[in-house]
Each structure stands twice: as structure tokens, then as C-alpha cells.
Write a structure and sequence with these properties.
Strand order of the largest sheet: 9-8-7-6-10-11
Number of helices: 8
CATH architecture of the largest domain: 3-Layer(aba) Sandwich
CATH class of the largest domain: Alpha Beta
CATH topology of the largest domain: Rossmann fold
Shape: globular
Distance between the termini: 51 Å
Structural class: alpha/beta
Length: 267
């Protein structure tokens, strides 16, 4: 029961590297110490201290404060304006050039990023930030994975790049999956999802448990394509690489899923 309440240590990909105060690791150490005190005293009420602090409308450099999102406005194809509520007529009271750190859960992973509010520093009852969200869907068959990797790594290497990526790798069997350690490492990033489609596997039971949830047997067909596209946050731009037959099939499935032809590229 106590293990379920224990804070989870962040992975390196969760830290934006901008010298935030508090850094996600600072918050983890503080929450871990709080959990250890509560466990030692067998008093779960001590875990509520953080929630009580979060009701304070003034920003605190040592802890996170919870705010509700009151509206999201799409400004361009991939840029959104988020408005957050502040209690009563309170304001952030930031100095010129100061930024805030926003923390939330994306794909089950806790992520934090630094943003400079676009609302006036003395705005009362709210603050606003701009966020840019691109979306890529990569469809790779066998060695067609090769041109996808430099793109993926350029996204993960740039801490300012918030492009969401879904990579679908199609292979004959589990043993034929190329570069497993690298792909598993990329999948730990908050904005990267990786699915595997194994055409000659009949069961997932013999696969490592860490692969079973995101692996499908059989071929990548029209129904599976629609399911993957529907799981994206917005209509993605699609990159395709594989045999000519694979590319033709993928193009046909994308059309059936409502993706326009100018929204995909075939290597």
C-alpha cells in the first residue's frame, strides 16, 4: 500500500535542462522525503501537506501550485493559447522576463517545461501561455526504419521541440526488430510513442512484458491504421518508408482514414 504512494523517480528525458527552480528532481527529492516521513510514522495524512500548499494562489519557487485550464484556443495549425484560472482577482506578479514552469502528465509520463506567460504581468484572475504541438506519424517496414531515426533523435535532442511522434515499426518477428535498445530508449521520452506490428508472430505471450502492450500481430491493415491515427492528438503529417508494396498499402490506408495526400511523404 505504501509502495503505491511512493513518488516515482523521474527519467532523464523528463528534465528540460533549463536550470528550472524547482527542477523536477528537486521536487522528487522533496516528495520522497515527505513520503519517507509519513511511512515512518504510518500517517498518510502527512502526504496531504503538498495538496494544502497547492491551494495558495501565490507562486512558490519551492513547490508546484495547481491551476485549472479555463480555455484552449487554436491560433495556427500547431499553436495553441492556454488560459489558466487564478483564484479571485489574484495575479502572477512576475517581473519582466521571468518564466514559470508548468508540470503535467503526458502519455502517462510526468513532464515539465518552462514558459514565459503572454498575458500582462498584472492580469487578474488568469494567465496565458502559448504552446506549439506538431504531430508526426512514422510508418516504417524493416530497414525503412533507417531514415526515421535521425529525425527522432533531432527531436529528442532539442529540448525546445515539442513535436509528438508515433513510430509504427513493421517487422516479420520480434527477433527481426532492429536496434531494440535505441528504440526502447527513445520510447522513454514524453513525446515519443512506438508501436510494433509483427506479421509472422501469432501470439504475444512469448514476448518480453515491456513489449506486449504496444505490439500487434499480423499486418498493419486499414483498421489498425485508423485506430492509431485516432489515438493521435490531431491529424498527423505522415512519413512512410519501406518496399513499394508497403508504401502503396500505407497510402491507401491513409486515404481511407481521411488523411489527405499532401499530408504524407514517401521516402
Amino acid at each position: 500500500d505504501w509502495l503505491a504512494l511512493k513518488p516515482q523517480e523521474p527519467s532523464p528525458s523528463q528534465c528540460c535542462g533549463s536550470g528550472c527552480k524547482p527542477c523536477i528532481y528537486d521536487v522528487y527529492e522533496k516528495e520522497l522525503a515527505q513520503w519517507e516521513r509519513a511511512k515512518a510514522k504510518q500517517d498518510k495524512s502527512l502526504l496531504m501537506e503538498k495538496k494544502e500548499q497547492s491551494s495558495n494562489s501565490e507562486l512558490n519557487p519551492d513547490t508546484f501550485t495547481a491551476f485549472n485550464i479555463s480555455s484552449v484556443e487554436q491560433l495556427t495549425e500547431d499553436t495553441y493559447q492556454y488560459r489558466f484560472e487564478l483564484p479571485g482577482n489574484s495575479s502572477l506578479r512576475l517581473s519582466l522576463g521571468q518564466h514559470i514552469v508548468l508540470r503535467g502528465v503526458v502519455n502517462g509520463l510526468e513532464v515539465q517545461r518552462a514558459y514565459t506567460p503572454i498575458s500582462p504581468g498584472n492580469a487578474e484572475g488568469y494567465f496565458e501561455v502559448l504552446m506549439k504541438h506538431g504531430e508526426l506519424l512514422m510508418l516504417a517496414s524493416g530497414t525503412g526504419l533507417a531514415p526515421m531515426l535521425p529525425i527522432l533523435q533531432s527531436i529528442t535532442d532539442d529540448e525546445e521541440d515539442e513535436t509528438f511522434v508515433t513510430l509504427v515499426g513493421c517487422f516479420r518477428t520480434f527477433d527481426k526488430i532492429y536496434l531494440k535498445p535505441l528504440l526502447q530508449d527513445l520510447a522513454r521520452y514524453w513525446n515519443i510513442r512506438i508501436f510494433y506490428v509483427l506479421s509472422q508472430e501469432t501470439s504475444l505471450e512469448n514476448l518480453p512484458w515491456s513489449y506486449q502492450e504496444n505490439t500487434y500481430t499480423g499486418r498493419l491493415n486499414e483498421d489498425l491504421m485508423k485506430m492509431i491515427i485516432n489515438s493521435c492528438r490531431r491529424k498527423p503529417f505522415v512519413l512512410i518508408c519501406g518496399s513499394s508494396a508497403f508504401s502503396e498499402d500505407m497510402s491507401r490506408y491513409l486515404k481511407a482514414a481521411g488523411i489527405e495526400e499532401n499530408s504524407w511523404f514517401v521516402f
